[in-house]
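Exercise (ungraded).
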Amino acid sequence: MMDIRFNVRAPKRGDLVVEEIKRWIAERLLGPGDKLPREDELQTLFGVSKGTAREALKSLEVQGLVTVSTGPAGGATIGEVPLERAFQLLQNYLFFRELDVAQIYAVRRLLEPELAAGAVPPTPTCCCASCAR
Amino acid sequence: MLLRFMCQVINYLLRHSVAMNNRPGPLAYQKLGETNVAAHQRLLAAARRGDVERVRKLMVAHIDEAERHVRKLGAGVRRRFILDSDLQARITSREKKR
């Protein structure tokens, strides 16, 4: 019999909780400024340990989706991913890739003229007889 | 929104990942500044006239000119990570400015 092995790793508990929290945010249409349940509530909600709930929150924080504050009124607040965080992740991706100045300018040449053209305000249309000629 | 983001990515790469190998003298810097200002003045004038095609052409010319200039300065892509501490400094200084 052929021995077929699939390289499927079981996801970590913390990663599963991250997915659940993301679904939770999407289903409730939550947005920037909305609070996530407290750490102990997350534990109850997903039936996980304190360490796992904390790991999930840390992961979401690194992804830029929440900010975590301490103190009695603290907790995790949903936020828009800052542009800098998106660039940081992109830089991680590019670090092991071959990128040169020519490629950057080639893409710039394709995109920026279109952006500039799109920013030109529409010229006001005139209905007078002299313009119609 | 997406086109703007892609352009931000390109400008971010130019600012943070492209480094010049040749150190330009003050005259070269001045010349670059003057060329940039003139290019943007032309762009603004065309945009105010509502001349979309001219804006497109001027932008391509500006990018070509900028590339020629950075090539003269021996520009290359630096391999680097953006650290959380860099990120924090940038976000904090921006918040202070507000």
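Further reading is listed at the end of the chapter. For now, observe: Chain B has a mean pLDDT of 86. Chain B touches chain A through 43 residues (CB under 8 Å).
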